[in-house]
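Batch job 17 of 40 flagged for manual review because the log was empty.
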Amino acid sequence: MSTHPARNASIDHLRIVLTVLVILHHCAIVYGGSGGWYWKQEPDGSNRLLILFNAVNQSYFMGFFFLLAGYYTPASYDRKGAWPFLADRLRRLGLPLLGYFFLVSPMTIALARTGEGHPFWSGWWLMTKLKEFEPGPLWFAEALLIFAFAYAAWRRLTPGSARHLQAVPKFSTLALAAVGVGAVSFLIRFFVPVGTNVGWLQLGYFPPYVLLFVAGCLAARAQLLERVTFAEAKPWAIVSLVMFVLMPVVTVTHGGKGSFQGGWTFNAVFYAFWDPLIAWGIILTLLWFFRIYCATATPVSAALAQRAYGAYIVHPPVLVGLCLLARSLAIPPLLKFGLVGLAACASSFAVASLLLLIPGLKKIL
């Protein structure tokens, strides 16, 4: 009898929501949030509500993606074997990564430059000639490829290993994990601050990504992500709420001198430990909530789940284009964020639907 997790409607619903949050996260940067993006209408960090929105998102949503990716990795490896597993990962992750790197990246940069009066088509060719190549949000695919090869190597080096979690870890265990992740993050950010890329990866955010991917792998056989209870999520939800309140207090009062991005400062220490402490509760609460209240697939949700990966890939040029179209609208930035963000989400899923009509892309997207 198989103990591997099968596709689950609640987890597919989570994937849809996380994809939407990625699009809204980048839209928030355009209108006054914090972070890097291809084109911005408002100054970076000019809207405190959007800064908080970005900070909370950053703490957990990509880590959640890594947790889900790890959750389905053992079953895929067991079903296919080492080399077919890696071939599948190269097809599903490597091909979109290459497509974005060489095609979508210069196109999106050229599109953003039209906001400064530059032509699009010749600009796209110019960006290609200038080798303006980067993975954009497909850094996630790059990281997952690294994780997939590491997982395959571990399985080959430890044949017959059946290590897995039997139950959701206790509060004390998760607390120790959060402290450990925070400490490692602080040390890494001391040398590689947040916002600094190494091979297009922001290593300052990677300690929780690695831990959550491993946790997903270990939770797979007992299907733990589908068994989270309210009692297990509640104490961490309280911790997350406390962290949610603390962040604006620290940012408004400037908690201490120095950068949040890294270094020997109070702010850097606070941010490094804040990340996992708020993330654990949000992840556990969402797993419980979606298991209870979003466990039944509908035709619409099934269609959206099938298109979530494609929407994730294509959303940068879609979002940049819509932001440029809306730049002359004389409405407050928060309202524009809401309107453009919703339009970008709908349009990204629509473009993904069109891509799935292309022969062969269904096997990739």
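Reviewer: the log was empty due to a logging misconfiguration, but the result itself is present. Residues 1-46+299-365 form one domain. Unflagging and moving on to job 18.
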